[in-house]
Write a structure and sequence with these properties.
Elements (H helix, E strand, L loop, with lengths): L6 E9 L5 H10 L4 E9 L4 E10 L1 H12 L4 E8 L7
Length: 89
Amino acid sequence: MSEENRRVAVIAIWVEARESVAEVNRLLSGYQELVRGRMGLPFREFSASLISLILEGTTDQLGALSGKLGMLPGVTAKILFLTRQNPTR
């Protein structure tokens, strides 16, 4: 993947449906080459979990993952693309 096609993004994944957890993890495993960091936090008072991912990949790859996650029942995924201040570095 060329330098100019790579993007850095953060995806927040809110999982309210326990039955979707295995599918979330399967999807993330399928995109593991894009994952630079992952943190998961349980929110027991909401019967939910929040997973945050730091990713690096093309816009198409990152959008595909976010879209697939968001289509799962009881799962909400939001993506934030980061813009580098100096793209020549």
